[in-house]
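[step 3/7] inverse_fold.run input=structure_tokens len=118
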């Protein structure tokens, strides 16, 4: 009987952990999408068309602060649940790298658009 109760508790707790990971993943994806959408709104602005590549890079690094932070926090939360043996520094580095890549993609599109216009 004790074994049955222990098995039921283990299954229940495993399902709860899986639900928690799934919820954290959904929040991380939502955070990513909000950040990308914010960056995408900056891309086509008329005021950006006269900017140099360096000016646009600086702009992108400074905009969408709340969306960027929300994405960072939600991604770190997900990573800490998905990979509990990884340290907080590794999860922070991964989140920062994801943000860096998002910014790089927007800047690359800006540079390509400028090169095509010339």
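[step 3/7] decode complete -> sequence:
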């Amino acid at each position: 009987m004790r074994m049955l109760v222990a098995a039921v508790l283990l299954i229940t707790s495993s399902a709860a952990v899986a639900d928690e990971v799934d919820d954290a993943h959904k929040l991380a994806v939502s955070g990513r999408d909000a950040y990308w959408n914010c960056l995408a709104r900056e891309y086509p602005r008329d005021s950006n068309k006269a900017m140099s590549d360096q000016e646009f890079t600086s702009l992108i690094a400074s905009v969408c602060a709340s969306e960027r932070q929300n994405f960072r926090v939600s991604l770190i939360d997900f990573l800490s649940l998905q990979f509990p043996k990884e340290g907080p520094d590794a999860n922070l580095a991964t989140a920062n790298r994801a943000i860096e890549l998002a910014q790089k993609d927007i800047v690359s599109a800006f540079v390509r658009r400028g090169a095509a216009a010339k």
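[step 4/7] annotate
The chain has a mean pLDDT of 85.
The longest helix spans residues 2-42.
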